[in-house]
UniProtKB/TrEMBL annotation:
Record keywords: Germination, Lipoprotein, Membrane, Palmitate, Signal
Localization, UniProt: Membrane
Chain ranges of the Spore germination protein N-terminal domain: 113-286
Membership in a protein family: Belongs to the GerABKC lipoprotein family.
Designated name of the protein: Ger(X)C family spore germination protein
One CC-aspect GO term: membrane
Membrane topology designation: Lipid-anchor
One record GO biological process: spore germination
Highest rank taxon of the organism: Bacteria
Pfam family name, one: Spore_GerAC
Length: 458
């Protein structure tokens, strides 16, 4: 196998430094004091040194070592690797056990600030009026316990309503809500607020300064509905409808058209109103809601139209329906009436061209006779006569609607966006469009209404 002196023939850089120093010291001894060659299975000092160096050094044993040294070094290296593998497995196991415990701790910490539902006040609707100080804010509070009784099939005790109203007056909305929270015994949450009402007096002065708060704070939903009232908003919020039990739920049913669907109702969300008030493409609008005498009915009558963020006028329900036809909105159940007949709209399609001087409206519409007070329309001449009457009525009413909007300097149809695209005026200013260009444009209507069903039994 060779003696220990054979290692001197190996290049110094191929051995660990500690082994080189040991070999140098041993070579300097007299021949009688030097170690004899060790056998492959011996466990003398040299072999123990090789094992120790194999454990303590990260360098691999050179292939030029004597055979017995390479054998011990290989065994030692394998032992080191086995020990390292066990240590790594133990560490990995500890990490796998500690990670779920850490995540469990984080989850449990999320419940440290929990609040019972009977200690939270939920605001479902807000009403904002103008006052001498600034604004007066009315908040509809939902009483969770009373709603729980209703949802389980019970009835409210006596005449107790499931809602009550808090009112505060302050310089601005933020201060009023702060006072409301300070004077209330429970935490007020606005995450369930579904509608915001503004009085017409406030809307005429401009709404954007009041909408800023609702768009900044994360506790408010920007998808809440926006509506108007004539007079104080509290009169509407005090309504006690029979179905559903809360006025805010009634507004959601009507505005989302989940309960009743009609093209005479054109709702608008909070963020939509704010966005449209900042651009010339289209003017915002909002529905007027009224409390019918008796206190248990809410009527959605007119549609308020705006120039920017200021209320400038309103449209009747029939005009609102025509506005939806011009906007190409989704068809809802709609009736068109002539002198002797009522016709249901089956389908429609509107195409609008806007040049620099003229607005051209092309409306194609299919209708069915829903009720007829005259003849039974057996003759084609009677059908054509009714079609001509319907075409003339639509052309007259739509032209009158656009003339009214031009007079109000309001563009809820969206002619401004079409003008920018088709007339290539990319730098269109809102004031220039609503005050100068739009009011002076001529309007041409082309109506193609057809009666596809007469309702006769052949």
């Amino acid at each position: 196998m060779g003696s220990i002196l054979e290692i001197s023939a190996i290049r110094r850089h191929s051995l660990p430094a500690a082994l080189r120093r040991t070999l140098v010291r041993r070579r300097s001894r007299p021949e009688s004091q030097r170690l004899r060659p060790c056998s492959g299975d011996s466990d003398d000092r040299c072999c123990r040194m090789v094992r120790h160096l194999a454990f303590s050094s990260s360098r691999a044993c050179p292939a030029a070592w004597p055979g017995h040294m390479r054998h011990h070094a290989a065994d030692a290296t394998a032992a080191v690797r086995r020990r390292q593998a066990k240590e790594e497995a133990a560490v990995s196991l500890r990490v796998r056990l500690a990670l779920p415990l850490l995540l469990l701790g984080l989850v449990l910490c999320g419940c440290s600030d929990v609040k019972q539902i009977n200690r939270i006040t939920f605001v479902t609707a807000l009403g904002i009026d103008k006052s001498e100080v600034g604004v007066k804010v009315h908040a509809v509070i939902a009483v969770a316990g009373r709603f729980a009784a209703l949802s389980s099939g019970g009835a409210p005790t006596g005449s107790r309503s499931p809602n009550y109203i808090l009112t505060e007056e302050a310089h601005d909305i933020s201060e009023a809500l702060f006072k409301m929270k300070r004077r209330n015994s429970r935490d007020i949450q606005f995450g369930h607020m579904k509608i915001i009402l503004f009085s017409d007096e406030l809307a005429r002065s401009g709404l954007n300064e009041y909408l800023d708060l609702f768009l900044r704070r994360s506790e408010f939903q920007s998808i809440a509905w926006l509506a108007l009232t004539r007079g104080s908003t509290r009169n509407v919020l005090e309504t006690s409808p029979q179905i559903p039990e809360s006025p805010s739920d009634l507004f959601v049913d009507v505005f989302s058209q989940a309960g009743s669907d009609t093209m005479e109702v054109l709702p608008m969300l909070l963020y939509q109103f704010y966005s449209l008030s900042q651009e010339p493409d289209k003017s915002p609008y909002a529905m007027f809601v009224e409390n019918i005498k008796g206190g248990n009915r809410i009527d959605l009558a007119d549609l308020g139209v705006f120039r920017g963020d200021k209320l400038v006028g309103s449209l009747k329900p029939l005009e609102t329906m025509y506005l939806q036809l011009l906007q190409n909105n989704k068809l809802q159940p709609t009736l068109l009436t002539t002198r002797n007949a009522a016709l249901a709209v089956d389908r429609f399609k509107t195409h609008i061209d806007v040049s620099k001087q003229q607005i051209t409206i092309r409306l194609k519409l299919d209708a069915s006779v829903d009720e007829n007070d005259g003849s039974l329309l057996h003759n084609p001449e009677d059908v054509y006569k009714l079609q001509d009457e319907l075409n003339a009525k639509l052309a007259t009413d739509i032209s009158a609607l656009i003339a009214k909007l031009q007079k109000l300097h309001s563009d809820p149809v969206g002619f401004g966006g079409m003008y920018r695209q088709q007339a290539a005026d990319k730098q269109l200013d809102m004031d220039e469009w609503t005050d100068v260009i739009f009011p002076e444009m001529s309007v041409k209507t082309e109506i193609d209404a057809k009666i596809v069903r007469r309702g006769n039994v052949e």
